[in-house]
Amino acid sequence: MLSAIFYLSAILLWCERTRINRTGSSIVRNHHPQLLRERQYKMLATIFALIGFMCKEQSIMVIIYLCLLEMNRINNDHRMINSKQIMGQHDQRSTTIMIRRQLQRRRSSINISENVITIGLLLATLLTAIVIRLAIMDYTLPIFNRFDNPASRATFPIKQLTFAYVGVYHFWLLLLPLRLNCDWSHSSIELINVEHNSISEWCLAIIPMMIIMSIALFMLRLAYNVLVVDAKYHMASFRWCHIDCSSLSRSSSHFRWKQLTLHGFALTFIPFIPASNLFFPAGFVIAERILYLPSVGILLLIGIGIDYIVKRWKKFTIFVRFALTTLLIVFTIKTNLRSSEWSNEHRLFRSGLDVSPRNTKLLNNLGRLYEKEMNVAYAIELYEEAIRIEPSDIRSHLNLGNALLSMNDSIGAERAYQQALKYSESELFEPSSSKTKNLPTIVHNPTISPLYHTVLVRLAELFHNDASRVRDLEQIKTKMITFNSLITNSLELSHLYNMAIVHYRQGKTIQALNYFEQVLTYDPNHEKSLLASARIIQDEDLNQYVEVAINRLTKLIQLGKGDSTVLFNLAMFAVKVGNNVEARKLFERAIDQRPTFSEAHYNLALLLVKGLDSRMIVEVENERMSNVHLAIWHLKKVLTINPKHVKSMLVLGDLYADEIGSVRISRKYYQMVIDLNDSNTLLRARHNLCVLWHKQNDLNRAIECFQYLKRDLIYSGHGHNNNIDDNNNNDERGTQSINTVDRIEMQIQILLKTKREIQRSNTMFNGTQNNCYNHHNYTNIDKIKHDRSKHLMASKLVTMCVT
Can you tell me the mean pLDDT for 351-373? Predict the structure, then answer.
């Protein structure tokens, strides 16, 4: 759509430029405003053509159409000369001679060189755009799968006949869009093989060629009538051809019809050239999307035809209007029906299979949908049907293997993977010369399909789970290593990268890092390897490689790839090496790039909390409280992003209890963790809640809380090995670890003993209090105070008594 907007805008600007009327003197004086305005239109039209080219390459063909418009300029550079007026001024005997002289004198006032320069600049722009596009592709054509466009790998004459048939089929869909499909690859369009001596094959071979030749001859005739001189009527004003500037009204009307028809055919076929397989093979058989721009020409031709019929046969006007209205209604209904087919993937793929039931790609896509819906049995049927149609389709065998493996049928999965491996290897090798027929040779400049390495990875994972298949596993690894020498570009480097990932999943971290090192040897700027190797070093806690990881992440930032993930990982390494100031800056940069990065908010809060303990960041009390509130803000931000982030709730509970002194809010966050019933943090939240009751000297609730915690530990089966506190996290602060049921029981006994002592002390204190008022016995009061020095409540009561 966007490219079509710029495509049509360029045409409209160019046509608007041709409507500017310039006097004869304006051609000589280049500073004339009308001439400047005309050049502005030309520049804008060219710029719009280039912008459309950047949106979609097909729209660059508008430049060729602009060249056609420039060659056919009638209203500006070539004046309409009425030969009747000229004949009225001269004797009839010298009519022909005088017409020629008048037209030749008129020609001298026309700036022919400007037209030549304009066409030359347009063609230079087209050539420059093509060169830039090729430079982006390293001056190589893209390589497509053989199923994307099967005819591109066929031999003569099958290739040429199929391409001709496909081209005609495109425009048949444009005229009669009844059988539409979202994908026309694989066997949707059969190759036309005349060697079969079938009548249908010969018809499919001959009819498209006849249609193409007829259209080409018709367009050449139109171009001759429009662009080439007709001595019967006129002379012209172009160096290599003569422009038709008819004088008679009847001939002028006929000429105008020819001119519009030529433009309609040009707008139809010129945009289709890149997809016609004429200069290079396209990556598709039929693509409905490339008919969007040619439809402009088709609509123009339909309009010309309707106008011609109405003017030629006026009695058929009502019939034409009825037919046009019917056509609009039918196409509107068809558009709505087609839009409904795009409402979901099931209907889309089903409609595609109704049009081309032999399209194995659609069968595989539909099978993947059913597999996601856990209807694996029906998905397997679709995969098997695809294999029956295209036995050499690697994707079908791979999907079948995955489906069988999900049903724990490892034998069937291995059989499917082996078939995929056989067909993928057959594409990599071809028979050698006659002298060594028994030995295969690698195809010249082979491109290893990503599916080939996917098959190897699946087999490696399958064999890795079976201890008796060690030898088979080594053979698969050998196959991977065999093709390492073929890795010469960024696409093929992904195969070594996949090898690294496979070894890491198998627990072979060092081997995985070695593969990453090989990738970076070929391409030091390979982004995936730089990031993945650094994260593996971080996750596996390989302290000896920390500097390597930091250097690789720093290199990603230098390459301009320092996204929030890279900054976050680099900050984690900065924390590991103790550079907390740099870590804080990196966390803040990651949050600036992605404000919803919850892990960055959480770890920055932990870093601030850690600074509170170590006194490394803040020294003054107000700065300390500022960091406390900042940590609380980041933790609340985490809960805004992820309301179930229990670790943030725990740290908030600790901060409000220890730093802010708000036990009520602290208890609220611990209760939130308990309500979420997260098995990893539930016990710790309950333990901290119990400690809060103890801190508030509410021994009854503290004892009841610890007893409930003990029962929960016994019923959950954690036994004596359960750890309530996660000592690996930086947010564990303030409370003592209570690791086992026995230690909780010990805590309960201590609390019960303390409760009994307080009760005994209260009893003694009540008696002493009476003596205090009656006898002023300060010695006994001091003794009680000394005995209850560890109990704050008793100390306060004694102090009140003394006062």
Answer: 91
pLDDT at 770: 53
Bridge partners (DSSP) of residue 431 are 440
Crossing angle of helices 62-71/33-55, nearest 10°? 150
**Of 357, 146, 108, 141, nearest in space to 235 by CA:** 108
Q: Give the lowest-confidence range in 188-197, 384-393, 503-512.
A: 188-197
CB 657 within 8 A of CB 663: yes
Q: Say whether 441 sits in a helix, a strand or coil.
A: strand
| Nearest Cα residue to 301 out of 330, 252, 265, 254 | 265
Instruction: Give the other-Cβ count within 10 Å of 438's Cβ.
Output: 6
pLDDT by residue (tens digit) across 289-299? 888 899 999 99
State how far the Cα of 676 lies from the Cα of 674, in Å rounded to an integer. 5
**Tokens matching residue 682:** 């539930």
Question: Helix 527-539 crosses helix 546-558 at what angle (to 10 degrees)?
Answer: 150
pLDDT range class, residue 380, cuts 50, 70, 90: very high
10 Å CB burial of residue 93 (0-12, 13-18, 19+) is: exposed
pLDDT value for 178: 84
| Nearest C-alpha neighbor of 481 from the set 426, 518, 441 | 518
Phi and psi at residue 431, to the nearest 5°? -60, 145
User: Do the Cβ atoms of 55 and 2 come closer than 8 Å?
Assistant: yes
The confidence band for 201, taking pLDDT boundaries of 50, 70 and 90, is low
Per DSSP (E only), the strands in 493-537 are none
> How far are the Cα atoms of 331, 789, 799 from residue 795, in angstroms, in the given order?
93, 6, 6
Contact present, 642 and 599 (Cβ < 8 Å): no
Domain with CATH 1.25.40.10 in the chain: 359-473
What is the SS3 assignment for 619? coil
Q: Where does 359-473 sit in CATH, by number? A: 1.25.40.10
- Please say whether the dihedral angle defined by the alpha carbons of residues 738, 742, 745 and 750, taken in this order, is positive or negative: negative
* Cis omega (within 30 of 0) for bond into 595: no
Residue with tokens 């539930």: 682
Strand, coil or helix: 92: helix
Residue 540 contacts residue 555 (beta carbons within 8 Å): no
